[in-house]
Structures are given as structure tokens and as C-alpha cells.
Amino acid sequence: MTDTERPRRVVGLTGTRADFGKMRDVYLGLQGAPGIEFSLVVTGMHLLHRYGYTLREIERAGLRHLHHVPNQVEDEPMALVLANSINSIARLLLSEAADMVLVHGDRVEALAGALAGSLTNTRVAHIEGGEVSGTIDDAIRHSLSKHAHVHFVANEHARARLLQLGEEADRVLVVGSPEADALAVAAESDLAPVRAHYGTPAPPYGVLALHPVTTELELNRRHAEAVVDGVLAAGGSWVVIDPNNDEGTHDVRAALERLDGQPDVVRLPSMRFPAYLTLVRHAEVVVGNSSSGVREAPVLGTPSVDVGSRQTDRSPAASVRHVPAVAAEVTGAIRAARAAGRSRPEEHFGSVGAAGRIVEAVCGDDVWTLGLQKRFVDRPLAEGV
Q1: In degrees rounded to 5, what are phi and psi of residue 111?
Q2: Domain named UDP-N-acetylglucosamine 2-epimerase: which ranges (predicted)?
Q3: pLDDT in tens, 290-349
Q4: Helix, strand, or coil here: 253?
Q5: Is the pLDDT of residue 251 over 90?
Q6: Is the pLDDT at 3 greater than 50, yes or no?
Q7: What is the pTM (predicted TM-score) of this model?
Q8: Pairwise CA distance, residues 51 & 271, whole Å
Q9: What is the DSSP letter of 152?
Q10: 368, 264 in Cβ contact below 8 A?
Q11: Averaged over 218-233, what is the pLDDT?
Q12: What is the rounded average pLDDT of the residues 54-72?
């Protein structure tokens, strides 16, 4: 960059406690990078007090230039959340004269950021595209990918899916997942500070993390009740993490309230992501339909019970037991997981150091030479398709 050139303006976006935990080091790296002027849109669950008002966590991390963008009231339909988010984020990108918007994963806020960027001719960089999410999240992730100009993916499987979607090969960079960095730390972390801060029980304990399924709204209450029945029948100590803010969360919360006041049950609205990973690392089992049960838990060697359809086809890990939302099957799977004990850690996210590789790429020139006008690449179909 010459003395007369202004810094490249990069706007990140975070909507949940989980995505910020994965992306924190990327954001901090860009904030301190030469030639980059970084700011962060804080929206979604971060600004809702019921979910712990985790904006404070972002401020404590040392991120300085924050845009607070409220986009919802509790249990608002996702379509309205998307509309609210696009409106606010598009105006912000234009007012900031942003050069790039950096989004992660498969949440509706990320989709809003990609749509706003694409439609304002702001370069869109997507982290962890090309993966399988399950339910509506799958459609969100792949839709987002079609609006992204550059993809930072976790592995070759993800790259292959993006090529199958017609993306140009030079736009897809295999860097690993920033989550690998956090998992490496969690694998060696002491549980004592987490117990002291959150009041969680000593091992052995299980973690219950259950979210609404937005494509099965009429079934959420019944399925959540079955999971609670299964957990109660299995007994033992539990840490219960409240559900996310997707449509239908009220029904899941209503079922989880039956666990309030139960002996050896601690219910938390939210946890810092590193603390949650440490909790999972030391748990005897993770139960529910959170992505942490099928992604993070196997990497940390913790067995899990995945209930229902939310994470369908998302994990090949042998340590994950998939069951329907039937109380007896949930109980049986919990007991089997306890009997089997810890598993050998599995690798899904590539090598440690993804955050640094993403920051290096954004600070370099190659991703900025990719045109804003994309083309669809037709590739031969497999025989018999």
C-alpha cells in the first residue's frame, strides 16, 4: 500500500456466542493487521439479554470498532430476522464504504451479510462454506456460498462441494477451520476455572444442548419433552445450555424448564466458547442436537448422542450415536455412551493455524484480484447421475 492509498476496509459479522468463539482470533488478527481497517457488526443473540448479552464478551476480547445492529425480538420468524438484517447491514456497508464483508457458517445473519455485500458490490468472503449443516441451515450455507466471492474452507471435502456448486476453483482456498485452534487449546484445558466461574458439577457429568428445528416447528415441544424424559431417566449430573434464538425456541425452553430445580442439574443461558469446549472435553457424554455434539465432541474424544434430524448426515464419527426423539432410545444411547467411555479424538477441521492463514490471505493481494462478477462453472456429472 502506498502513502496515498487508504486501508482496505473489512467488516466482520457475528451473531452468536459460538461463531464469535471460532472467529475471535481472525477478528483480532485483522484489527492489528497493516493496511486493514477492521470493524465488526455485532447482532443477533449477542444483543439479547436472555442469551447473556454476550456483546460484553466481545468488548472484553479487545475489539474496538463495533457496530451494534439489533435485528430481532425473541422468537421472531427467521424471514423477518433476515429482512431486518439485510436492511441494516446493507446501509452500514454503504456508509462505511466497505471493501469486504467477512461472514462465517450458516446462520441467517451471515446470509444477510452475504446478500447485502453481493448486492452492494462489496467483496464477500465466506468461512466454512461447502459443509453439510442439516435442515434449513444447509440451504442457508449453500445460498450464502453463491453470493461469496472468496471461500475459506476447512478441508478438501468442502472444496469439492463448492466446485460441485459451480464455483471457480481459484476462489476456493483450503485453510482449515479456525475452530481447530480453539479445540487444540480445549484439549489441554483445566476444568477447574470453568467450574469456579459457572458453578458446573465435577465429573462425571453430561452436557445437554438442544435447539429448535425450524423445519419441524410443530414437533419441537414433543421432541424436546422426549429428550428431557430420556435425560431424567438416565440420571446423573448435567449441565444444560439454553437453546439458540431460532424460531421455535419457546417450545424447547418450556420443556427444559422441567429440569430447573432438579438435583445435580445446572442450567446456563450461555457460556464463553472456550469455556464450553473445555466443558465438553471433560464431559462423559454430550446429548441433544447441537453441532457441538457431532463436530467438536468427536475431535475432543467425548461420546455424544445426536437426537432427531437437525444434524442429519453431518458427522461420520463413530463416537456419535444417532437416535430419534424417543425417550427410551435417548436413555439407552446415553447409557451406551457412558459404558463405552471416551473415544480416540477424530480429525475434521484440518491443521491448527487457520486463523493466521485467513488473516494472511486477506492482507495479501490474491483475494482482491478476484472479480466481483462470478461465473458458474459446469463440471461433468458422475456416471449414472
Answers
A1: -60, -40
A2: 30-361
A3: 999 998 999 999 999 999 999 988 877 899 999 999 999 999 999 999 999 999 888 777
A4: helix
A5: yes
A6: no
A7: 0.85
A8: 9
A9: E
A10: no
A11: 98
A12: 94
